[in-house]
Amino acid sequence: MSKLINSINEAIKQSGLKSGMTISFHHHLRNGDFVMNAVVDEIAKLGIKDITINASSFFDAHAPIIEHIKNGVVSGLECSYMSGRIGVAVSSGILDKPVIFRSHGGRPADIISGKSHIDVAFVAAPTADKMGNCSGKYGPSACGALGYAFADAMHADHVVVITDNLVPYPLSDFSINETYIDAVVKVDKIGDPAGIVSGTTKITRDPVGLVMADYAAQTIKHSGLLKDGFSFQTGAGGASLAAANYLKDIMLAEKIKGSYGMGGITKYMVDMLVAGCFHTLIDVQCFDLDAVNSLRTNPGHREVTASHYASPIAKSAAVDNLDVVILGATEIDLDFNVNVHTDSSGVIMGGSGGHNDTAAGSKIAMIIAPLVRARLPLISDKVLCVTTPGKTVDILVTQRGIAVNPNRPELLANLKGTGLPIMDMRDLQKLALGITGTPKPITRGKKVVAEVIYRDGTKIDEIMQVI
Amino acid sequence: MSKLINSINEAIKQSGLKSGMTISFHHHLRNGDFVMNAVVDEIAKLGIKDITINASSFFDAHAPIIEHIKNGVVSGLECSYMSGRIGVAVSSGILDKPVIFRSHGGRPADIISGKSHIDVAFVAAPTADKMGNCSGKYGPSACGALGYAFADAMHADHVVVITDNLVPYPLSDFSINETYIDAVVKVDKIGDPAGIVSGTTKITRDPVGLVMADYAAQTIKHSGLLKDGFSFQTGAGGASLAAANYLKDIMLAEKIKGSYGMGGITKYMVDMLVAGCFHTLIDVQCFDLDAVNSLRTNPGHREVTASHYASPIAKSAAVDNLDVVILGATEIDLDFNVNVHTDSSGVIMGGSGGHNDTAAGSKIAMIIAPLVRARLPLISDKVLCVTTPGKTVDILVTQRGIAVNPNRPELLANLKGTGLPIMDMRDLQKLALGITGTPKPITRGKKVVAEVIYRDGTKIDEIMQVI
């Protein structure tokens, strides 16, 4: 018995995909992914139109989808993150209906609850067997965890595994199991390893970044949370990684045994696991090869589903026990609302990912960002797009000062007398505006190009066309 | 954040359990399980009545449930296997409504499809954390795999984890994850290790058993299936284990690299994995401590859910690729129908477990059993209860002769000229009757005490009251 199908084309035909349906993809192959473009090319050849793509993320590698939007093959996009040329095209108004943005926890929640129905899911699998047991840990296109693909595989009507590394049945160390899989296609390459493993996971050497990182680590040290059992997530930005590295030194010096590190996982979090700062890494996505190797070999480093990571409708998720998360921002406003969806001119270049999930779940959600970028101030009166509501954001760390959300007086009290440059948010904004001057207001079109759905299912904001 | 509840009593109250509802248990603690009795005792104290218990199996340790049937607390039983005093009591007609028997694959299929609704599932967990991530691999009551508990945990309205080994959050090597769990209760002991690890997993030294085992191994050798990629399941009976041991010798001598061994796993299957006879063990339940240790330490030894093992409604299950399964029988009839539900007098002492799942999925389903037991013949004109339909049973191996199902002429052809004592089923029956004489017909009552649901959801037989 075997589910092997000769080609993506035949697998699409067998799936019963019809015009108007929704297909899905996960983004663990990141900017190295070949699978989405290959599938949509075949859908176009079959004359199928009006397809909605629900992908956990879109990267610049998916720019060919723009042509398929123009020719009517693709009419809708849903995701948790969108960058590169596709974000620019969407911002220009290329789609008739708005993109639906969800968080990394909200996406699987809506798939599991049935709010967001997927007709055919395509799972890019670095290793698979003939029945569809599959894993991201092995093979020439190894990406590590497949956390975002579980909800799609478990709840889509039809599921196609696409692999470039077919192994004898049964694959022992499967992540997603055969009970959910309808078909398996072997192709030459599912991705480009250079693009799968991001180049962003390097510690910053920029002095401004290092100052922010030091402030961030010191803030955590004095937060009242850095003790045995401490749990932590950080992103893959250079300053965030530097902060993690400083934090590691503090934890080792003070002999603090944390419980878990979480997130998209990088070498720096792996180093913290190996050094004993945490007993567990909870991994929904690997950012670099060290993370992939660790997931494969270290029993304390565990793959989790996106639901386990961050679902707001699960009976609990790992974010619910998180102490501190370090997050980025393109903009933050006086009410601590954060934008990571658009750049300062309103063009889509990101999305929540786990941003608003971890901010909501953690005891301290810390934003670190430089006070000024490209002659534009970080702090605005009102962000162009609310990704993460200010009531869930606890503190902003910049190289010039640190602002604590007024709704966290106990955190402010803990930081008093530490020598850290605590400032009022308005004073920090004035400092920024003193450098940049008051930026010109953005003119935006009247068309809504994206709807931002908060993790609880409510629409938290809309993104307007950039003209 | 924590889901810890002080006592089973409080957890039941919190669950909203009401009279008339269905609760569930898994049986990995086997005859050492303390949890089912403890929970039902507390339900009784709370004055809740008319409860249906859906347990993957009932053992003699669950005899206290008989009193709860008499006092009206428990009014229905559903399971895949029932032995000991509870089977005797049910056979005597103690329940007003029939027991529902399903297979190990049919049970999760009905839970997942919603046919069999569970209001509150109780998961006996040898190790758990405060959020309900849990595992059977660790702790003083370690039982290994928790395969049968997944469907209950994933689909019950409310799920309570009961553990005697609470570890810091997060448990890294979880089997069932926190997203499905509502409450966690820490108790002193969830079971008796001596009863958890069965005493049955020893190779037979009985000469009759060894002859059957040799015939079984030789039959597999000549079946046409024993080649690279071979897959195999055997039960935990002494002769089956001896057959596995003989088969191991043959595979090593002939340098055959199988693909997977499966089932309830014993030391003998672990030995075959370690010796290189298989690259993977697929494990839904551990029968002995060697299996538990192997599951914990050998990456080729993998826990699977009962659905992955054998579900008839999954997109595929591991049984679908099985080459050979060795199974037992209390009775087999001229049409190769097999009974493992009752003894020869019609008293319930077993159930399908994975019997009819593996028989349906495998290329060769082999029954091995002695021709005569307790002066009663193995082969009857018609079995008292059909557990596994004869059309899925391929061959019967006894110490006196081997009968091939007439619907498998190619298997018969492969075995011709091998020196194995191939006989017609009717001749084997005559041989048995020559030893035992014609047994007295059984008198049974008119009350249906159990319904046997085949893996496809149809009622395949009924079991009558024994009077």
Give a concise summary.
The structure is a homodimer of 467-residue chains. Chain A is an alpha/beta fold and 467 residues long.
Characterise this structure.
The structure is a homodimer of 467-residue chains. With 467 residues, chain A is an alpha/beta fold. The first copy, chain A, has 2 domains: 4-56 and 104-196, Glutaconate Coenzyme A-transferase, CATH 3.40.1080.10; 207-442, Glutaconate Coenzyme A-transferase (3-Layer(aba) Sandwich), CATH 3.40.1080. Helices cover 28% and strands 23% of the residues of chain A. Chain A has 15 helices and 26 strands. Chain A is globular and about 70 Å long.
Major pleated sheet of chain A:
10 strands, mixed
Second CATH tier, the architecture of the largest domain in chain A: 3-Layer(aba) Sandwich
CATH topology of the largest domain in chain A: Glutaconate Coenzyme A-transferase
Oligomer: homodimer
Q: Write down the overall geometry of chain A.
A: globular
CATH homologous superfamily (4th level) name of the largest domain in chain A? Glutaconate Coenzyme A-transferase
> Given the structure, what is the number of helices of chain A?
15
- Helix amount of chain A: 25-40%
Measure the end-to-end span of chain A. 55 Å
Sheet-strand content of chain A, in percent, reads: 15-25%
* Sheet with most strands: strand arrangement of chain A: 1-10-9-6-2-3-4-5-25-26
Annotate the secondary structure layout.
Two copies of one chain form a homodimer.
Chain A: E1 4-5, H1 8-15, E2 22-25, H2 35-45, E3 51-55, H3 65-70, E4 74-79, H4 85-91, E5 99-101, H5 106-113, E6 120-125, E7 127-128, E8 134-135, H6 150-155, E9 158-163, E10 183-186, H7 193-196, H8 207-221, E11 231-234, H9 238-253, E12 260-265, H10 267-274, E13 280-286, H11 289-297, E14 301-303, H12 306-310, E15 324-327, E16 331-333, E17 338-339, H13 355-361, E18 364-368, E19 372-373, E20 376-377, E21 379-380, E22 395-397, E23 402-404, H14 409-415, E24 422-423, H15 425-436, E25 444-453, E26 459-466
Parallel strand pairs in A: 1-10, 2-3, 2-6, 3-4, 4-5, 5-25, 6-9, 9-10, 11-12, 11-15, 12-13, 13-14, 15-18, 16-21, 18-22, 23-24
Antiparallel strand pairs in A: 7-8, 16-17, 19-20, 22-23, 25-26
